[in-house]
Amino acid sequence: MAKDQKKQSRPKAETPKGFRDYFGADVTERKQMLDRIAEIYHRHGFEPLETSAVETVEALGKFLPDVDRPNAGVFAWQEAEVPGGGAGDWLALRYDLTAPLARVAAQFRNDLPSPYRRYAMGPVWRNEKPGPGRFRQFYQCDADTVGSASVAADAEICAMLAAALEHAGIARGDYLIRINNRKVLNGILEAMGVAQGKPADDVLRTIDKFDKVGEDGVRQLLTTGRKDDSGAFIEGVGLAPEQAGPVIAFLTSKGADNAQTLANLRAAVGASAVGAEGVEELAQIADMLSAMGVEEDRAIIDPSIVRGLGYYTGPVFEAELTFEILDDKGRKRQFGSVAGGGRYDGLVERFTGQKVPATGVSIGVDRLLAALRAKGLMGGTEPGPVVVTVMDRERMADYQAMAAELRQAGIRAEVYLGNPKNFGNQLKYADKRHAPVAIIQGGDEAARGVVQVKDLILGARIAAQASHEEWKSQPAQTEVARADLVAEVRRILG
Asked: Fewest beta carbons less than 10 Å away: which of 17, 252, 253, 296?
């Protein structure tokens, strides 16, 4: 080979920026958690729906093609020219599970029952700048009721969310579902004399900062403005002090119980009809939750829940985990929100021209899984398969028969398929696979009709803790009749 010949170019073995790979326990634990949630959704009469990972950009709605490429929010591409000329359709990976639901509800509206209750779980993609804990592909877990304007559907979603969290492993007392209503806020805006459009949007954005800046901060931002922590001045909305009053009354109306909160909200909305309607809806939801056994230690009316109020049209809810964890610096902090949702119009209207009421909730899959791990309910090392070692290449059929018998008995098992020359490497392999048991049978054992069963878990524990005398009295490897192989493995696995 000539010295000046260029070396062969090889692709880099690396995950694309903003994406990640999931191995073993990550995949298994996520599936276990989602299966538990799906069991609750199914019990409540919801049907599973699995839509295509690709939608037309037109169906997605939020993102439209630019001159050369679609908006950067989605991963999109344009199909080849259609026969006869003309540009092809813009297609995109789905960025959530709600837009596909809108398309399905419109496309199959004559075939689906109404109301239509569905749940969906799967990956979504966002063409956004990645950052710490922020990935371009992640899982969502949604449940929605399409076609019912009754607040009973909202109450049912909240009750189902509580049941799903508990069935996934979050104990009662470690979470709280907080409920608010956009109509109440509309009533507040009406009482303030603030019109829809930019003034209302400015107020909404200011209200959304309540959890960060508090009552005084919101009051300043609604009126003349305030300085932030860095000393920079943030211009206010420009409302008169008396106009800001109803907003403060709304945000601070949470009482000792739901009854007191509702009374405070009625006073805050004043003579606003839409505001009164929103308070009455909250009262109905509270009554229905109580009837379903979801008391105020699990779900409460809380006007401070304002996130997403610009998007939702009625009741909104958020599930917050209330237990403390330690951050990277060892400081205590609450885990925070793991689910959110509410009622929204316009789900199917873009396709049919008719308003279709809908309500739903989305659980943050990665956040809930992280919470379960923080509580020690997931995240342990998952036991691997029983490993049948190979002592004699010519007897591979015998080893495969052993693994088959274990599998037929419901025990996870595999035969070592690497180079069997070095037996130590086989045990290293079993250790890397977190195998609980290794099966050993050489020519001598085969002639005598026995096998050696090595308890790898006990062996590791003895090696780490036991004295020499204890080690001799607790052998981690036993010899049993070949016919007793399955029974002995079952005994070890418990």
From this structure: 17
